[in-house]
Specification:
The chain is an all-alpha fold and 209 residues long. It has a domain of 135 residues: Orthogonal Bundle (Tetracycline Repressor, domain 2), CATH 1.10.357. 74% of the residues lie in helices and 0% in strands. The protein is built from 12 helices and no strands. Helix 6 packs across helix 7 and helix 7 packs antiparallel against helix 8. The longest helix is centred in the middle third of the chain and has 28 residues. It starts with a helix and ends with a helix.
Length: 209
Amino acid sequence: MNRELQNILEKVGELYNKYGIKSVTMDDVARELGISKKTLYQFVENKNELVEKVLNYLLNKNDCSFKKLADKKLNAVEELLEVSILIIKTIKEYNPSTEYDLKKYYPELYKKLNEIRKERMYDSVIKNIIKGKDEGLYRNDLDEEIIAKMQTSRFLNISTDQVINNEEVLKPRFIYEMFIYHIRGMANKKGIETLDKTLDKIDIKEHLQ
């Protein structure tokens, strides 16, 4: 991907997140970017293609952020806490209308992206559980496939829950408690001790505000 297209996708992603997808026209995009529509159409044929490219770009960008955690050489518990912080930072900038517009006006794209999210999340949870077992932090009797399916389903379907509303889901404290619950459910004694020590080292409160 060339730098010019990347800048366009980054900026349009910000517009979608701020105003939603439906209300942002191609004229709005060209004006915000300071380019002509003719120039914009050199990169995409229409708004549908622009929406797809922007969402694929943002999805891969988030994926890269998670993959960078591997470079930190964290243990499984530390890794999950870092993931929770990344998600908390993301939801602080999240606009629910973007998801609503995508689901209503681009259902096929919404379905496709959800499948990608599901696969990546499932793989990530599986790898973390195996890692935690190998490190002696998680219980050996865990069925990683069942746990991964439960955790993935919990995250992807929580917005349709009749007990929890969307406002609660988007609260940093809610995400944090979900991860703590998940970790404590898998951890053995050593894992719990590692969790408590890690929580003592990081200032989680600043992320929960």
